[in-house]
Amino acid sequence: MKSASIIMIIGSAMLLGLFVFPLWSIELEAPQYPNGIGMNIHLDGLQGREKHDLQNIDGLNHYIGMRKLPKADEMWEFSTFPKVIGAMAVLGIVIGLISLFKSISPKWFLAWLVLMVILGVLGMYDFNNWMVDYGTNLDPKAIMKMTDADGNPLSYKPPLFGTRHILNFVAHSYPSTGAYMMGFGMFLTFMAYWLGIKKTKIVNT
Amino acid sequence: MNTISKYMFSIIAFVLITSCGNNNNSGNTGAMNSSKAEKVYVAPGEHDEYYAFFSGGYSGNITVAGLPSGRMLKEIPVFSQFPTSGYGYSEETKPMLNTSFGFVPWGDAHHPDISQTNGELDGRWIFINENNTPRIARVSLETFETEEIIELPNSAGNHASSFVTENTEFIVAGTRFAVPNPQRDMPISEMKGQFKGPLSFVSIADNGRMNLEFQLNMPGFNYDLAHPGRNKSHGWFFFTSYNTEEANTLMEVNASQNDKDYIAAVNWQKIADFVKNGGGTKMAGKYAHNVYDEKTHTATSTIKDGVITVDPRDVKGAVFYIPIPKSPHGCDVDPSGEYIVGSGKLSTDLSVYSFDKILAAIEKEDFVDDSYGIPVLSYENTIAGVVAQPGLGPLHTEFDGLGNAYTTFFISSEVVKWKLGTWEVVDRQPTFYSVGHLMIPGGNSRKPFGKYMVAMNKITKDRYLPTGPELEHSAQLYDISGEKMELLSDFPTHGEPHYAAGIRADIIKDKSKKYYELSENEHPYVAKSESEAKVTRNGNEVHISMTMIRSHFSPDNIEGVKVGDKVYLHMTNLEQDFDVPHGFSIIGANTSEILVMPGQTKTIVWEPKREGVWPFYCTDFCSALHQEMQGYIRVSAANSNTPLKFTLDDE
Question: Which is it for strands B630-636 and B557-562: parallel, antiparallel or unpaired?
C-alpha cells in the first residue's frame, strides 16, 4: 500500500504543472505568417506565443468581427480554474498522505479520480462553449461577413481538438504540456488505485 | 555477413556510385556553366550566405546586397535625403543632415567598414565616410539605420576614411584636398607650405558614440586612402598621399611630376597618449555632431567648436614618411600586419613594405630626407618585395587569409592574384570594365572569409540591357576558394560603389530588429493607443498625434485647421508585428511621404495654402483594406471660427 500512496501523491501533484505550463495551445498558420502566430491557454489567462501575438490575433480578427481575446480579469474561469485545480491537487496529496500512514481504502483514490474526470469534462464543456461564442458571436458591422455554402454566417470557432481551415488560416488546437502532465498524473492516480486494490487483495488472501 | 554489415555495404556502395556520377557531370562546358549557376543560385525562400554593404558613391547612401546571389536587399539612407522612407525630410531625421554649413541634402559616400573586435568583424556597426562635406556616419546593424553622423572641421575631401582599428578604438578621416588650416582668405597660388592636410582621429565608445579626439596637422599633400595596422602592426595607421608637388592647378599633370610620393606611417597610439597627457593645442573649428535616439525616434544635432590639433613634429617617433612610386591610391595591410601593399597608380609595379623593416629603420634613424620636419625613411630599406609588372594602374588590394593578395588594376581592367612573400603572380582575371576597389568579406581584417571576391567597376558599357546614357555600375563576383579565380556572375549596383564591406550573414542576421517596442517609445508626440490620439493648437501651430493600425488612422476626420497654419502630423504606427509599416502622405505637403515602422513615431509638416477638405492616406500597401486607410482634414479660412474637432467613426 505504501508504493500506491506515493504514486497517488505524485499523480495528484502533477496537476501543479498547470500553474507553470499551458493547458492548451492554439496555433495559426497562413502564408503571411511563415513562422506561425499562436496563443497558449494557461489556467489563469491567455499568453501569446511571441510577445505581441495576442494583439496581432486581435488585429486579424477585427476584420471578421470577432471580439478581442479576453484579458485575465474578463473571464471568471481564469480566477476559478486555478482554485479548483489547486484544491484538487491538495486533496489528492492529502488522500495520498493519509493512506501512507493509515490504512484507508484505495477507493478514495478512485473517488478522487472520478471527481477529477467530472471536473475536467465540465471544464472542457465550458471551454468549448466559450469558443463557440467567440467564433460565432460577431460584430454586426464586421468588415468581412463570410457565409458558408448554405448561406449561414461562417463560424470562426477554432477546433476544440484538432486542425481546421478557417479562411486563409489553418488552426491547430491541441493540449499542451500542462494538460499532458495532468493526464499523466490522472493515469498515475488510477495506477495507485489499481495497485492498492491488488495489494489489499494479497493481504486479504 | 550479418544484416547490419549488409546495410552498411549497400550504403557505402550507394555513396560511391552517386559521387562518381557527380564527377562525370562536370566534364563538359555546359555542366561547368550550370555548376557556376548553382554557386550563385539561392533557392526561393533561402538566404544568402553573406551580407555585402556597397557604398553608393554619389547616391550618398549604402546599398545592402546578398552574396552570392547579388540580390539587392535594401538601400540605407545615410548622407542623402531619401523620400522613400522620409529620411532627411521627417522632422525627426532632418537634424541628421545638419552640418556647420547648415542643412546639406546630399553626400558622397565612399568607404564602408564594419566594426571589429580583436581584428575580426563583430557586426555591431558599419561606418562610412562622406567626401564632400567631411563626415563619418555610423549605421546600426540591428536596425540598418543611420544612428550618428560626425562632421570633421578644418578638413576637405574626406576620402582616406572610414577605416576602423582592430578593436574599433578609432576611426580615421583624411584630407584629400589640402586647405588652409585654419581656413582663411589667401591667394591660391601661395598654397605651397601654407595649406595643410589634417588627419582626424575619431574614437568610438562601447555604445558606439563617436568623439573627435584630435587632428594631426600634416603637411598639405593629398591624403587618399588609409589602412590601420593589423595584428603586429596594431597601433599604427598608414595613409597614402599624392600631390607631394603641392600643385594647385592642372593637377592631372602637375601632381604627377614627382617620381615618388609618400605613405605616411602614423603611430596613433603614441599620439593618443600624447593627447591624453595634455599634448596638442586647441584650435577653432565648427562641426556638427548628429545623434539619432532609438527611444525618442528623433535625431538631435549639436554644433561643437574646437578640436585638439597635434603638430606631427611635436610627438617624437610617431610620424614618418615612406617613399612610394607614382601617386599611390590604396595602401593595404595584410592580416598578419607585416605587409603594407602600396599601389602606385601610375607605376607598373606593386611595392610591398615590411612592418619589421619600417620599425628597424626608425630604430636606426635610417632617414634619407625630411619633409616639413617629418623624417623620410628609405624606400630600399623598408621594402619587403616588389610584385613586378603585374598589370597597369594598381588601385586596391585585399587578402584571403591564406597567404594570397588580390589587387585591382584599373587601366588593364583586371584582378591579379599574387602570393605574399614570394611576390609571384598566381592568376589574373579580367573585369568589366576598369575595376576600382574589390571586396573579400572580411578581406581587410585579421580574419578574411576567403570564399568570394567582388570587383566593383567604374565603367559598365554593354554589360546589361542599355538604359540610356546613364548606367548603373557593374560588379562581378568571383569564387576564390580555388587556386584560380572563377568568375561566377555579374550584377549592377546602385550609385557608384567605391568600396564595400562584407560579413557572414549568420553574424548579424539573428540580431536584426523586427519592430520597435511601442511601450518603449519616448517620442514627445507619441500616441500609444487610439485613446491617446489628439489634436492641439498652439498659436498657428497645430500638432496632430495620429495613430495607424490596419486599416485605419485615428483620428481620420479633423476640422478646425486654418490656412496659414503649420500642421505637424505626428504619426505613430501601433502595430507590433514584423513587416507591417504604414506610410503617410497628404495632398499639398511640400515634403516627402514618411514610412513609419511598427512602434515608431514620425512627423511631417504640412502648411495648407487653400481652403477645402484635403485627403490623406496610407502609402504602403498594408492590408486587404489598405485602400480604405484614408482620412480628411478640413481647412478653413485663416480668420474663420471653425472649432478644432477630431473624430474616428464620429466618436
Answer: parallel
